[in-house]
């Protein structure tokens, strides 16, 4: 049975470290689209080796950039991947089978973080269901600057296999990313009318998160990598609220000084 044609869609920026493994896992796609926002490494060279259609686009934020990439696809079915995500053979086969006779206009897949050399199966990172395969006329990305998501009109199908997420090469780079993300999340919260966090919220937020993911969702079963991953997530939560507080505090202080 012939399957539906689909386009694999990426947004990239200096992704040479991980992109090739991702492209290898999706080599059966009928089209590969790479929307790049200014890579200075070998990202585009690698993409060209896999016959990707390269489009240069100034950075618009995660949600908007992905939606732009989707609209450039030639096929109605699209699979959206990050450069550091790799399909397992089981997931690749599940996608092929699903597209032979689609039972829905979208499909979700489990996403597994690979952190400090370990696949995290508990805590906050798994199964982390993501809708990544969909008919582009029946779905769209949110315009969130970070933690973007796909909105669909009907219930998605569920695919077998995992989308492996190789989130970072080192703790240093992972902490840098969390620092950037907490800034983006704080700015988005302020734009949506967030108020300065109370002392209780600053103190409670990371601890509530730790109890939820380390004990209730059994993150302790992922060993030391799981503990470190959850602790960094808790610190990132504190950072987000601290940056919201900083924005209001500095604004009030600046107004007082200039009064």
Overview of the structural elements:
The chain is of the alpha/beta class and 259 residues long. It has helices at 19-25, 43-49, 62-71, 89-100, 171-191, 199-216, 223-257; strands spanning 6-12, 31-36, 53-56, 77-80, 85-87, 106-115, 118-119, 130-135, 139-141, 150-152, 157-166. Helix content is 42%, strand content 22%. Strands 1, 2, 3, 4, 5, 6, 7, 8 and 11 form a 9-stranded mixed sheet that branches. Strands 9-10 form a two-stranded antiparallel ribbon. The radius of gyration is 20 Å and the shape is globular. The chain starts with 5 loop residues before the first strand and ends with a helix.
| Largest sheet composition | 9 strands, mixed
Q: Tell me the distance between the termini.
A: 74 Å
**Helix/strand order, N-terminal first:** EHEHEHEEHEEEEEEHHH
How many helices?
7
What Rg is obtained from the alpha carbons, in whole angstroms? Answer: 20 Å
Estimated structural class: alpha/beta
Q: Which regions have little confidence, pLDDT < 50, spanning 5+ residues?
A: none
Calculate the mean pLDDT score and round it: 94
Helix content: 40-55%
| Shape by Cα distribution | globular
Number of DSSP strand runs: 11
Strand content bin: 15-25%
């Amino acid at each position: 049975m012939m399957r539906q044609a689909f386009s694999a869609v990426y947004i990239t920026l200096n992704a040479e470290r991980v992109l090739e493994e991702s492209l290898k896992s999706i080599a059966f796609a009928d089209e590969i689209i790479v929307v790049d926002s200014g890579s200075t490494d070998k990202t585009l060279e690698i993409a060209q080796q896999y016959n990707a259609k390269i489009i240069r686009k100034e950075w618009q934020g995660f949600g908007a950039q992905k939606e732009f990439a989707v609209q450039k696809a030639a096929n109605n079915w699209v699979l959206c991947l990050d450069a550091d995500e790799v399909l397992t053979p089981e997931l690749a086969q599940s996608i092929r089978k699903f597209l032979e006779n689609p039972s829905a206009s979208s499909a979700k897949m489990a996403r597994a973080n690979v952190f400090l050399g370990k696949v995290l199966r508990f805590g906050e990172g798994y199964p982390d269901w993501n809708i990544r395969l969909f008919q582009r006329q029946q779905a769209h990305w949110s315009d969130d600057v970070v933690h973007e998501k796909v909105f669909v009109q009907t219930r998605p199908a569920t695919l077998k296999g995992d989308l492996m997420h190789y989130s970072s090469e080192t703790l240093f780079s992972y902490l840098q990313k969390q620092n950037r993300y907490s800034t983006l999340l704080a700015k988005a919260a302020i734009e949506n009318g967030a108020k300065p966090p109370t002392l209780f919220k600053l103190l409670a937020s990371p601890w509530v998160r730790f109890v939820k993911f380390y004990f209730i969702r059994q993150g302790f079963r992922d060993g030391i990598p799981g503990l470190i991953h959850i602790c960094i997530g808790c610190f990132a939560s504190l950072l987000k609220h601290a940056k919201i507080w900083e924005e209001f505090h500095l604004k009030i202080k600046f107004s007082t000084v200039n009064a």
